[in-house]
Amino acid sequence: MKAEPAAQRRLLDLATIDTELTRVAHRRRTLPELAEIVEVEKGLQARRDAVVKVETTLGDLDRDTRRLETEIEQVRAREERDRKLLDAGTVGAKQTVDLQHELTSLARRRGVLEDELLEVMERHEAVEMDVAYARGQLAEAEQKLAEAQGRRDAVLADLDVVETRRSDERKRLASELPGELVSLYERIRANKGAGAALLRARRCEACRLELDRIAIAELRQALSDDVVRCPECGVILVRTGESGL
Ligand SMILES: [Zn+2]
């Protein structure tokens, strides 16, 4: 293939842009924030579960409290009714004894319920602290996640800007070069990762290998508009005054 030396040299600009675009794409995939976000999200679910668990326990204790308070209230009402009956003095001797028995057993029952209520309230207090702690841990993880996402988005936005600018430059540059040359460049790049490289001091800048004497002799015989390839890695070798030919 033939191409003007100037067009060949501009392939190096295309290669520089492609290198940067590759770097941007790599950066996008390997942002440390991505791993951080995955890590925080893992912890976040565990913390959400922890909050639900202690909130459920607290709800159960609330229900127990209400149940015990109601029961105590019912016992109290019964005691009051019994006492009023006794105080009124209108009941007979047998009923008086029955009422006194009932009052004793109601007092015992109320004592048991009140102890139970006290216990539930103590547990409630402890679990309230657990809930506050679990919510704090969750809020901390959520904040960490938001921060990591914010940093990720900022870096991605920067990368978008670079990518858009470089892609536009690339499009413009490629449109100004001979189509055949660009096609060859693209084909090599698809296979090798690089499409063109400078030959500097007899060394291919893509594979970093120094060309042997036979290869150098062949390059010396090639015309300046011949498109030549690196015998080692196959990229288009761009010759300039620095090539050492
Ligand atoms: Zn090479």
Automatic annotation (TrEMBL):
Residues 14-193 form the CT398-like coiled coil hairpin domain. The keyword Coiled coil applies. Keywords: Coiled coil. Residues 131-158 form a coiled coil. Residues 203-237 form the C4-type zinc ribbon domain. Gene3D superfamilies: 1.10.287.1490. Transmembrane segments: none annotated. The keyword Coiled coil applies. This is C4-type zinc ribbon domain-containing protein.
